[in-house]
Amino acid sequence: MQPPLVRYELTDGIASITMDDGARNTLSPQMIGSLNAALDQAQADRAVVLLTGRDGLFSDGFDSAILREGGPRSVALVRSGFKLAARLLAFPRPVVVKCTGHAAEMGALLVLSGDFRVGAAGYQISADGLQMWLTATEIIRRSVVFLDLVVPEARLAHAARDMAIAAIGMDMHKLRARQGILAAIRNAIDVDFTEGQPVASGCG
Question: GO terms for molecular function, please (predicted)?
């Protein structure tokens, strides 16, 4: 039996959601489905979310094998990734992202979709391959930096936990404050996925 792609642990009001596929934390349909299931549980628990990856890597983005196929399955994959990012932005409790290493393409957009973002020095975060998508542009535009706090790798776990603990008492009114950006992102998803819209094979 294979270990789960996503681990969920609730401690003191913080839902730790950890992506770990044993390799590149590729955002496959299974990984995205597991993340959504974990967010369902965090919402039921009324918990602050602490989203993280495996040591040295947050996520390398979409499953490239599916993207190279083209067709409905690749379209569905990209759309589900964008909808996951929108869900994080609209999540009713604070979302802290602990960027444990490199984050590429859709992985970088997930980092940007957190309310508070902390990462270790020395890693690269890049969404360069996604600029052709209006949805990606809208998500990137909402933030001038990828990370709010950069710390030495040895301090990352403590810094992220401290950030999550501080977020427990915050009443963010996220939905009210983000009505404009969420409307823009949801509209962008509709525009990106109108009938006949191709999926670029380089989208990671």
Answer: enoyl-CoA hydratase activity
